[in-house]
Amino acid sequence: MAKDERRAEAERLYVKEGKSCVQIAAELEVSEGTIYRWKAEAAALGETSDWDTARRVYNMSPRELVAMYAEALKQWVVKIKQSPDLLSDGKIADAIAKHVSVLQKLDNRSQYMGVALDLIKIADRWLYENEPELKTKMEPHWESIYQALSEYSTKKGLL
Predict the structure, then answer these.
(1) pLDDT band at 51 (very low <50, low <70, confident <90, very high)
(2) How many Cα atoms are found within 13 Å in the side-chain-facing hemisphere of 147?
């Protein structure tokens, strides 16, 4: 595996699989220092490249994503409150109405999946801290559990 491929794989393992730098170094057969250096270099490029930021975003529950979306919408509402004439622009008024509609739909649907995904993450974290061997055995199954949950939620009209 080429250096760039290893670096990309290291980032994926860190962000999407939640592995530590030590675990990644062992898996990719590179030094721990190399993993820490790659991580630091990415962080130096800014928030959009930072592995820790990407991990936090990747691990956000649907409820957290809805909250972030709502916060962005609130910032627009504050701007409109300060300058009500912004609503005279049809594009802005239409966009705000659409965003409010999307937010209402997302909020209802995210509640069920958000709680379920939070429980999966809590269980995975608990296993990591208390039963690492069992966590290793469960890792291949989380994706199929998530898929089964998604299918069930879709059938029940929750998504």
Answers:
(1) very high
(2) 5
Which positions ≥6 away from 94 have C-beta within 8 Å? none
pLDDT single digits (tens) 21-50: 999 999 999 999 999 999 999 999 987 899
Which tokens go with 140?
């291949």
pTM score over 0.85: no
Question: What is the C-alpha separation between 69 and 71, in angstroms, rounded?
Answer: 5
Distances (CA, A) of 29 to 2, 16, 21, 51: 12, 19, 12, 20
Contact 25, 31 (CB under 8 A): yes
The DSSP-derived string for the chain is: --HHHHHHHHHHHHHTS---HHHHHHHHTS-HHHHHHHHHHHHHT-TTT-HHHHHHHHT--HHHHHHHHHHHHHHHHHHHHH-GGGGGSHHHHHHHHHHHHHHHHHHHHHHHHHHHHHHHHHHHHHHHHH-HHHHHHHHHHHHHHHHHHHHHHHHTT--
- What's the Cα-to-Cα distance from 125 to each of 121, 128, 130, 142, 154, rounded to whole Å? 6, 5, 9, 12, 27
Which of 136, 112, 135, 124 lies closest to 62 in space, CA to CA?
A: 112
